[in-house]
Design goal:
Elements lengths: L4 H22 L3 E2 L2 E2 L3 H12 L1 H19 L5 H19 L8 H23 L8 H28 L7 H5 L19
Antiparallel strand pairs: 1-2
């Protein structure tokens, strides 16, 4: 991602819009017995398109904004979302995410990492925390909902970030040129 004020503004607008949607409407409604979490999806989308460091920065900013607006333990969400953003960004840097359905497993993995790590951090920081087997059912349902919402969320983030990305994500999906016929090994350039 280009490090310009326009890029920072676009990331900030994505984070604010997602957190406000999360707090105002989507966070209060339940779908299939679980809540819809947009925070790990937008962090994963920025990380997969921009890289590990912008993904970690987006995770920290989104988590801090979420903690401040909801009134949770300060730093719990930002710690977990920073790790999620960095992990997804490293996946992008190591692998070639060129498939069109790539957002589904990435969104599912990011959401699963978010719910498991946030539950662990909240359990460690909260004095009166109780654990039930229903938490596992809700984690699975939240992960499935995150996987279903990954395609539209990633498409929206890609559209917003496309002008400031160094590499266009659509170009990654195009086929590469066919390898050239070079003749026998060791005789390249001799044109025998």
């Amino acid at each position: 991602m280009k490090r310009t004020p326009d890029a920072y503004l676009r990331c900030a607008l994505i984070a604010v819009a997602a957190v406000l949607l999360q707090i105002s409407g989507l966070g209060s409604g339940r779908v299939l017995g679980a809540y819809v979490d947009l925070a790990p999806l937008i962090v994963a989308a920025v990380a997969i398109y921009a890289g590990a460091v912008p993904g970690a920065a987006m995770g920290f900013g989104t988590g801090l904004l979420l903690d401040l607006l909801v009134g949770q333990t300060l730093g719990a969400s930002s710690l977990v979302l920073t790790a999620v953003g960095y992990g997804v960004g490293r996946y992008r840097e190591v692998r070639d995410p060129a498939h069109g359905l790539m957002p589904i497993p990435v969104g599912a993995a990011a959401t699963l990492a978010w719910v498991v790590a946030f539950a662990a951090v909240s359990f460690m920081l909260d004095i009166g925390a109780t654990v039930s087997w229903l938490v596992l059912r809700e984690m699975v349902a939240t992960t499935l909902i995150g996987a279903l919402l990954a395609l539209p969320v990633f498409a929206i983030v890609r559209r917003v970030l496309r002008p400031v990305l160094l590499v266009d994500p659509v170009d990654l999906r195009r086929r590469r040129r066919a390898p050239r016929d070079a003749g026998p090994i060791g005789l390249r350039g001799l044109e025998v």
